[in-house]
Amino acid sequence: MKNNPRQQCKSSPIPKENRRLGNLVHQISDGREMMMFSSRDRDIQRLEEEVQRLQRLLQEVQERTANHIALLQQQLANKSQDIERLQDELQSQQDYEKIKTELRTLRALTQTADDPPVVSVCSPPSDVSSVSVDNDHVIQRELHHFLGKEEPLSESCPDISGLPVENRRSPSPSSSPSSSSVSLHMFIKAEKDSDGDISCAVESDGFMDEDEREFDTARIAQQVKEALQQQNIGQRVFGHYVLGLSQGTVSDILARPKPWRKLTSRGREPFLRMKRFLSDEHSIQTLRIIQERLRVLELHEADLCVCLVAEGIVPWVRPPEMSSDEVIRNILDQSRLELMDVDSRSLRGGDASEDVIRNILHQAEHEMQLHSHVTNETARDTVKPEEVDYGTLNPRVQSPTDFVQSIIRKVKCEIDEDTHPSASPASLSSVNRSLRALPVDSGLRTQADFQLVCVESCEDESPSGLDLQSLELDTGSITQRVKEALTLNNIGQRVFGEEVLGLTQSSVSELLSHPKPWTKLSLKGKENFIRMHRWLQDPHNVQRLTKIDQRARLKRDSQRTFDGHGFCPGDHSGAFEAVKRPRVVLSAHEKDALRAAYQLEPYPSQYTIERLASQLGLQTNTVSNWFYNYRSRIRRDGLTEPLQTRTVQSPASTSPVSSSLVPIKREPSDPEMEDDTQRHARVSVAVQAVTSVKTEL
DNA sequence: TTATAGTCAATACA
DNA sequence: TGTATTGACTATAA
Question: Taking burial as the number of CB atoms within 10 A of a residue's CB, which of A320, A475, A492, A543 is the most buried?
């Protein structure tokens, strides 16, 4: 039987002590509980704070997300608008092929009816400013078409017919006002007339009134810049159609407008035109349309060359005024020349693949004639597609680009089928020879030609390796060898330049005397050295040139005899020279002054240039050209000063800046040959001009 | 848009 | 007469 503890406590003095201990234990446990509670309270509080913080965070995140979503929605809306706008534009431009055809037809018409075209197919000019007046008429008609005007601009508009001849057909795009800009003005004005806004007779009077006022040229320039930027109109187009100036000039005028008072009446004209342009929203929109149309046409025609490259055939670069059809026709023309060449060679044993090409090209030519016929007779469609089967070469169902691609594909296909081992290289070179058929100085030789030259060079050396990237020539050695060969065989730079490089004598001289290192040459610059390299490798090089040289001499001699009898057919040089601008020849002191200025400021600001020009009595263009050329020749010679004007130390000199600037050679163009004092005075004037500008700044 | 490379024609020079 | 220089310009690269 177990003892009851309580009973034991009551029955002894120990239980009292136990009770006290028990109380103590109880108190301790209570304390612990209290601590635990307070700790939990703190935890709860902390958690509550954490919850609040997280709630705040959540709220912030929600707000931010909402904002972001709103922003994205806005952007999406904007993009959608853009897409819609672009789709609309695309839609509105879908008829450009048709318009282009119309444009071409009209151009042909105007050329037939008017003088011969100003721009020939092979002429090199590449800027819009060279577009003939005839094209302006076409553009005007085109604009009528775009603007939904049924009536074309009357050719006998009293304003146009009443204009002075020089305004109707400006001899130079840079002369003012150009016929193009006049045409546009007439057009815009005629447009206005039709809306009943302005009378036709106000034009000239308006100009007179404006001329008497004073304009803030900087503000006009700024506004024009903004307008062009907003409407995405290029300076080239603006310059051509509105100002009758080149892009470079427009850029210059807009970047550095001269104060109105400093402008001559001629210099003010662009600003007057700009002012009128700005005040006429209609003309701005018209120009925007012209710009867009030109871009579309350029894109389309650039496409052709891309296709040719894609097909493995190196195209020559088309002058901008040449249409895609003309490009095709040109290819065919060149091919015909090739075939004539083939004909002569076939007598000595022909190449089967060339016959294949000949057939294809004949067919292509036939297609082109048909294409041309169909294009002109689109409405009537006199030839039904099913009447003739042309396989894949049907221009009526293909764009010009696709058409050319088809020809190329077919040629390649035929070549591949030809089992003749030499077919491919021969065929490729046959096509490539078309490039060589072009005159070297026609301005058509570009990167494509460079590649051809490279390929041919590499073929000469290592038929398998056509690594154009790693091609590197020793320009110094090449020029040295060429010089030796020319001297040894008494061949002139003129003949060498014309026959081998397609350059003038002066350019040959410069190339031979100052060859740039290969790495510093541009693609075009390298081309010359590759040609020289090839010439050096040609075993018959000297023989060929000697013959040509002899023929040229004979021709010159006979010409001289002819001239001696007082008759020279087609010689208008006298009349031509009468209108030529004389070459500017800077005198010694002017050069000294410019060199001194260069020492202080190799890249002078426009303001400095103007100051220098004014101090020296020169045109600003002359000063600015001098700096360009001087910097260029310093770079070329790799010296502190160009070779031809290198100077020596002159102990007698006293001028602080020009003391070392005494030319080695005498300046024959300096008649009075000033003494040192006068020259130093001139130089110090220039130096002062530069330093005073610096101080002002 | 600007700076530079390449080129030409006129001119100078040997 | 052939070559070198140079002012001016265009095309192109940056």
Answer: A475
| DSSP of A646-667 | -EE--TT---TTGGG-EESS--
To the nearest 10 degrees (0 to 180), the angle between helices A523-537 and A447-461 is: 30
pLDDT in tens, A471-526: 778 888 888 888 888 888 878 888 888 888 888 888 888 888 888 878 778 777 88
Exposed e or buried b per residue across A414-423, where buried means at least 16 C-beta atoms within 10 angstroms of its C-beta:
bbeebeeeeb
C-alpha separations of A157 from A134, A173, A201, A444, A497 in Å: 15, 23, 11, 39, 50
Which of these, A491, A475, A580, lies nearest to A529 by C-alpha position? A475
Q: Which residue is nearest to nucleotide C3 (CA to C1')?
A: A509
Q: What is the dihedral angle through the alpha carbons of A663, A669, A671, A676, rounded to the nearest 10 degrees? A: -20
Burial class (CB in 10 A: 0-12, 13-18, 19+), A356: buried
Residues 173-202 of A with CB under 7 A from strand C: none
Q: Please calculate the CA angle A53-A57-A62 and round it to the nearest 5 degrees.
A: 150
Q: Which of A184-188, A348-352, A384-388, A459-463 has the lowest mean pLDDT?
A: A384-388
How would residue A654 be classed by pLDDT, with cut points 50, 70 and 90?
very low
User: Is there a contact between A500 and A532 (Cβ–Cβ < 8 Å)?
Assistant: yes
Token pair of A327, please? Answer: 């490009």
Closest amino acid to nucleotide B4 (CA–C1'): A632
Positions of strand C less than 7 angstroms from a protein CB: 1-13
Measuring from the CA of residue A247 to each C1' atom, give the nucleotide at the shortest distance: B1
Q: How far is the CA of A583 from the C1' of C8 (A)?
A: 9
3-state SS string for A41-54: HHHHHHHHHHHHHH
Place of tokens 């151009």: A107
List the end-to-end C-alpha distance of chain A, in Å, as a whole number. 120
Cis-peptide into A463, omega within 30 deg? no
Cα(A51)–Cα(A48) distance, rounded to whole angstroms? 5
- Judge whether residue A442 contacts strand C, using its CB and a 7 Å cut-off: no
Q: Backbone phi, then psi, for A491, in 5-degree steps?
A: -105, 130
Contacts of A119 (CB under 8 A, 6+ apart): A125, A130, A131, A132, A321
Q: Tell me if residue A567 falls in helix, strand or coil.
A: coil
> What is the 3-state composition of chain A as percent helix, strand, coil, each rounded to the nearest 5?
70, 0, 30
Answer yes or no: are the C-beta atoms of A254 and A235 closer than 8 Å: yes
Phi-psi region of A422 (alpha: psi -120 to 50; beta: other; left: phi over 0): alpha
The one-letter amino acid at A164: P
